[in-house]
User: What shape does this take?
Amino acid sequence: MSLQRGRQTMSLWLVLPSVVVFTVGAGFGVSSQADLATGKFYEIVGGKVDARTYNGFRRYHGSCNHCHGPDGMGSTFASALVDRLPGIEVFRRNVRDGVRSGPSVMKGFADDPNVAPYIDDIYAYLQARADGALGRGRPERLEN
Assistant: This one.
């Protein structure tokens, strides 16, 4: 093999992984942009929810339902979240920093490792409930 041919082959092996990473990354970017364009954080197919929404159900019922009631329906302690779900930015801020409304206070969860990393998952679950796309109770999960 000539020196020139060897350099071309080596260049191909150096460039090819970058092309693959860019192509795969671009595909994921398009999907994320499409989700953002619709404003939906959840996906439901045949009555089954995606992993994010299912995880949101689990996290919600592990930390939030004590005050906001099962399935986001509210309680005597805190308002229903499915009746008036705020936009994602307000929701993130409220969950991270907490909320004070008259004598009612919700602590912030910014330091809670069971909540803070999963705020968008919880939002996906509550958004599906608020939109009427998901009923009460434990949802079935889509297969990967």
